[in-house]
Amino acid sequence: MGLDQAMEISISGINANRVHMEIISSNLANINTTRTLQGGPYRRKVPVFHEKPIEFTQALTTAEKKLSGGIDVSEISEDQSPFQKVFNPGHPDADSSGFVSLPNVSMSKEMVDMVYVSRLYEANITAYSATKRMAQETLQLQ
Length: 142
Description:
Number of strands: 4
Strand order of the largest sheet: 1-2
Radius of gyration: 22 Å
Largest sheet: 2 strands, antiparallel
Structural class: alpha+beta
Low-confidence stretches: none
Number of domains: 1
Shape: elongated
């Protein structure tokens, strides 16, 4: 694996973490949304990651090392955990018993995910910077 492929892998991690942070932001923005266009409360979104395939020629040269080509977001799925039920008979979306279904978004879980994703983002930036520095030092040798 060359330095350019190492940088591409870091960039794929950076992009995947950016998408994950956007999803967390969307979840937090909709934490009180009780009515969506599809009907019912907002459902928490979760990214699904998959290993990014590498080209055939790269696969042959790296088969022994079991290296991947990075990471990618394959889809954004909805968390199927149950909605929160809150007694609020005056709310316009309350059912006949006076309960309102709130989104299945937990502020604490989203904040923990945000810190985790931000650390992953920083780690990918650090790896990219180190690889870039190595490439620059290699060019100075010539």
